[in-house]
Predict the 3D structure of the following.
Amino acid sequence: MNSIRVFAPATVSNVSCGFDVLGFAMDGPGDEVQLTLTSDQEIKIRSILPASVKLPMSVEKNTAGVAVKSLLSAIGSKQGVDIELAKNLPLGSGMGSSGASAAAALVAINELLGNPLSRNELIPHAMEAERIACGSAHADNVAPSILGGFVLVREYDPLDVISIPIKAKLWCSLVHPHIELKTKDSRKVLKPQILLTDAVKQTGNIAALMIGLMKPDSDLISKSLQDAIAEPWRAKFIPGFDEIKKVAAAHGALGSGISGSGPSIYALSETKVIAQKVGDQIQAIFRKNKINSEVYVSAISDQGAH
Amino acid sequence: MNSIRVFAPATVSNVSCGFDVLGFAMDGPGDEVQLTLTSDQEIKIRSILPASVKLPMSVEKNTAGVAVKSLLSAIGSKQGVDIELAKNLPLGSGMGSSGASAAAALVAINELLGNPLSRNELIPHAMEAERIACGSAHADNVAPSILGGFVLVREYDPLDVISIPIKAKLWCSLVHPHIELKTKDSRKVLKPQILLTDAVKQTGNIAALMIGLMKPDSDLISKSLQDAIAEPWRAKFIPGFDEIKKVAAAHGALGSGISGSGPSIYALSETKVIAQKVGDQIQAIFRKNKINSEVYVSAISDQGAH
């Protein structure tokens, strides 16, 4: 085999009480990468589709390129590779777009080379891509995109990423409003210090969320999907945010919040029917605020890039 | 039945990354309460043993008395009760001493009255006793003393207490050094604001601890038993603290830390043999610092007061 096509799913990070530590993967949508081994010892970005997507073709600036280069360099390989990227995820959406391309490219190159690295070992190379894309080598998008499911980033130094053995069956509605929100701005509103009482709330809720996901206990999941750290400051960037939360709950979602650093909104529900309705209702509120949006509904992935 | 004897166990609260939200119950030691129904519509503290213990005999100031009074008042009963208290737990030790007396008294009166309340419903009355004993109506000692096992206090308003369905088999070494440390002083060193990065560390670790306890995964429990919020400030109150942590780990403990607001030290281990050795080693360090101490070793209780 010298060519392979890999799909890597969109991801939701900063899952409410899991600010900076918790993410999960959708079953779809996602980015696709076609990788072909070549004999010329060079990594090349051959094409990026659709043509409307403005992403760098330079290997050093494209997340798929950076990731593949980082992996090959780590294992001391001078293998040549052609990369074709089908970019289905919107950029700057809070849906883990940059991470998905890197995840797909890494799983592809690893597979073509006979899997010299484990899935967990791919994560640091995807983080290098995140560093290029958004200035910080964070793992809470790339880890779920590579591993699937709910993933906890317990610690960065040394990196400790844990696949959470959840028993809850959950569906996600992901709604991407067409507003621009730079990660930089979204990060800037967070204060370097927070109230001790808010930190205690956050620890109580994330502990309860873990119990709820593993037991499983829908009621507990629902009660614990709260964010005392980021959401109170970031809500102002999302028109109609308070109404969105209320409407999502009223239509049966267990919880909802900002996906990543926004502007997308995620909601978790117990069935596909509820998730679809919740997504439609959130879209309706954006429409009321004169904002177009796309709605994606899928189960939580039980596999990562494939 | 008009008389009953109830034992309520010592508890460890502020379990490392579970500052203010996580506690667990020992199998022993604990306080014992003998309750006898009387016909004179009065609650009386009849005796407190051993005689050396200096605790108020007034119902309004004694935690067992306050708890029983709160419960009877809530259910509109004017039942008379005689309370005899066998106080086995050292006061101001960080072992949940005040909470254990209240827990024992509540389970006793509830039993004598035919269990009008559930175990969870007893907790608010025990919290009233904590308010008298230490100025704040906290639940992270009384809840595990009443319910047994590991208990999460997710939220205070409204109170939401969750028994954690742990699968890990754990033993606790609890070492009580004879030094005085007032809860007030222990509380005073904590800052009302903390670094966002420390809050993120704490959430990552408590999430991992829940996964470790439920899966179970000893390695994960061990890695996650860290406290970024309270321990860095409170360590100075415990002579030899850094050495204690190192020695506990070196002798096989999964983790260790300050019990409650101190000065007692807890350590968690996978077997009784390891827990005993770890306890002895911690005691040896206190001895080196010219401090006497008691060592208690027990399994984590799977039942509360009984």
Summary: Chain A has ten helices and eleven strands. Chain A touches chain B at residues 17-22, 152-155, 160, 162, 164-165, 190-211, 214-215, 220, 223-224, 229 (CB under 8 Å).
